[in-house]
Specification:
Shape of chain B: elongated
Strand order of the largest sheet of chain A: 1-8-3-6
Distance between the termini of chain A: 49 Å
Shape of chain A: elongated
Number of strands of chain B: 6
Number of strands of chain A: 11
Structural class of chain B: alpha+beta
Distance between the termini of chain B: 52 Å
Low-confidence stretches of chain A: none
Helix content of chain A: 40-55%
Number of helices of chain A: 6
Largest interface: A-B, 51 and 48 residues
Largest sheet of chain A: 4 strands, antiparallel
Number of helices of chain B: 14
Mean pLDDT of chain B: 82
Structural class of chain A: alpha+beta
Strand content of chain B: 5-15%
Oligomer: heterodimer
């Protein structure tokens, strides 16, 4: 269903390519709904700028600022010309009343983020690099399965779009460590790599690996 | 229409791992949600309150159920499909807001748990963190980003410990001609023993040089802020005036003019301050700083001993300022101290 947002034009803010929408650590007091353009979410960890996400029109970001003015946990930068609607605590209720579809969207955003973080927590608490990396693959597979639920047939090969950087981001290991595990899995014929794609030969095999390590940990 | 269904004690509404699109409200009885704590691996039991929703996240997000819903006493639950639930919240924004509050708390909690696992060192103090972002972008020659971070730093921490250093970075980016790489002294941030005075001097020298070139930059405004934070109000006023006359339409004109007024008040030049802000109100009646103008009019009248006028200005501040704003808080405190309502 298309959202009629003309009534919110007074909240519209435009950013040009490369503009910083907000910056990590700065107090947050607003959240945004992208109308046109794309927004890059980045985080500086140590000496590297990590890409956390690229957001599309219709997506919401900065939503943690809805209820409390906590510092931003990442920076948002306009990838091109970007038009966003900017909402804060004050006009938030007007928004909820005036446009329940956005309210629903917000709920969904929170649900997805909570789930992602929980899943990430599960990955991080695994005891060794192998099961961590394996679990990242499982998680990426689960996400894909939710998105493409119509074609839920289980083929032998599972193709996953991701780079070693993505894997490293999710499991908290360095890119070098991740590559090591990937090489090991490849040697064991559990995995094949293509350009920014991984082909998993037997997803159940990875699942068994993760399950066994997780159990051991909880005993 | 949502369906009401009775469950007997000791029955299960759903199991952890089930996939379903049903959302529930407990109408009467007693239901407990059993989940596994992700930190300890132990079993968690949580009672559902009457009137409370459960099964929302997994249904809407199409995830497997994260808990088992265990019926303790005979209960009646209302069952919604996702589309019935959507209809319900479209007509009841209160429910959505309530739910968002719960979710936002959960998200913050899990964020923290993940953060703890990733590394302790990531928990940088907010002020240093913001400055660090600016420095990172500066080193990587992303000056637009660096500029943003340093400006934010100076907005939030005008008297912060890294203020002089941030100003120095800012000036060096802003005065750098396009195509060249700005640079700052590579030494450590000036320490309190020798640093600030010399750094201010060098900044003034920089801005003087810039002026000679006939360029209008904002560096002199930042000089003013530096001097202001060092309580050198006379000099600060000079810088702000320089900035305003060089950039009559500049981005920071209202801010600079506001700071001039504040400096006048702090210099106890109450009559000048009153004159200054009175004319500001006429010039910028719609400024977002209006509350600040009025507050300082009140403060100056108070300092002159004119209680009645001071009170009336503080009341105006309270009328026009946003709930929870610093200005409003100050005005309220002042009014209270004066014995007003």
């Amino acid at each position: 269903m298309a959202l009629d947002l003309t009534q919110f034009d007074r909240f519209k803010v435009t950013f040009q390519k490369g503009d910083q929408i907000f910056c990590e650590y700065e107090p947050g007091d607003a959240f945004y709904l992208i109308q046109t353009g794309r927004v890059q979410i980045v985080k500086i960890i140590g000496e590297i700028e990590k890409m956390v996400d690229i957001l599309q029109p219709g997506e919401i970001f900065g939503e943690m600022a809805i209820l409390e003015e906590a510092p931003r946990s990442a920076s948002a930068i306009a990838l091109g010309k970007v038009e966003v609607l900017e909402f804060n605590k004050k006009n938030f209720e007007i928004l909820m009343r005036g446009n329940p579809q956005i309210a629903m969207k917000l709920l969904m955003t929170f649900i997805k983020r909570i789930y992602d973080q929980k899943r990430r927590f599960m990955i991080l608490t695994l005891p060794d690099p192998q099961s961590k990396v394996a679990d990242v693959f499982l998680m990426l597979y689960e996400t894909q399965a939710v998105q493409q639920q119509s074609e839920a047939k289980i083929t032998e090969d599972v193709v996953i779009d991701a780079s070693p950087e993505d894997i490293s981001h999710w499991c908290g290991l360095s890119i070098a460590e991740c590559r090591q595990v990937i090489t090991y899995f490849t040697a064991q014929r559990k995995l094949e790599t293509r350009n920014n794609q991984f082909v998993i030969k037997n997803i159940n095999d990875l699942q068994r690996l993760v399950n066994s390590r997780r159990k051991k940990e909880q005993l | 229409m949502p369906q009401a269904l009775k469950y007997k004690a000791k029955s299960i509404i759903y199991f952890e791992g089930d996939i379903s699109d049903k959302i529930f409200i407990l109408q009467s009885g007693k239901v407990s949600l059993i989940s596994t704590d992700i930190e300890t691996g132990k079993e968690n039991r949580e009672l559902v309150k009457t009137g409370e929703f459960f099964g929302v996240k997994s249904s809407l997000g199409k995830y497997p159920r994260e808990e088992t819903a265990d019926v303790i006493l005979d209960s009646v639950v209302l069952i919604f499909t996702v589309s019935e639930f959507e209809k319900l919240i479209y007509t009841n924004p209160r429910i959505t807001i309530q739910m968002l509050k719960v979710f936002s708390n959960q998200l913050r909690r899990i964020h923290k748990q993940v953060g703890n696992l990733l590394s302790e060192e990531e928990q940088v103090d907010q002020e240093k963190g913001l400055f660090g972002i600016g420095e990172y972008y500066f080193k990587n020659q992303k000056f637009k980003q660096a500029l943003y971070a340093f400006r934010r730093y100076l907005t939030y921490y005008p008297a912060g410990i890294l203020q002089a250093k941030a100003t120095e970075y800012l000036v060096s980016i802003e005065k750098c001609p396009p195509g060249k790489t700005p640079a700052v002294s590579s030494g450590p941030a000036p320490s309190s023993s020798s640093g600030p005075a010399s750094s201010v001097a060098s900044l003034s020298a920089l801005s003087a040089a810039v002026k000679e070139e006939g360029e209008s930059t904002t560096s002199v405004y930042y000089d003013g802020m530096t001097l202001f934070s060092k309580e050198n109000y006379e000099e600060a006023i000079n810088c702000f005036r320089q900035y305003v006359s060089a950039n009559p339409d500049g981005e920071y004109v209202v801010k600079a003019l506001t700071d001039i007024g504040k400096a006048l008040y702090l210099l106890k030049k109450n009559d000048e301050c009153i004159k200054h802000f009175t004319s500001m109100i006429q010039k910028f009646p719609k400024s977002s700083e209006l509350g600040d103008f009025l507050l300082h009019l009140g403060l100056s009248h108070e300092a002159k001993g004119d209680k009645a006028k001071a009170e009336s200005f503080f009341k105006k501040v309270i009328d026009i300022s946003e709930e929870g704003s610093e200005t409003k808080r100050k005005a309220k405190a002042k009014l209270k101290a004066l014995g007003g309502a």
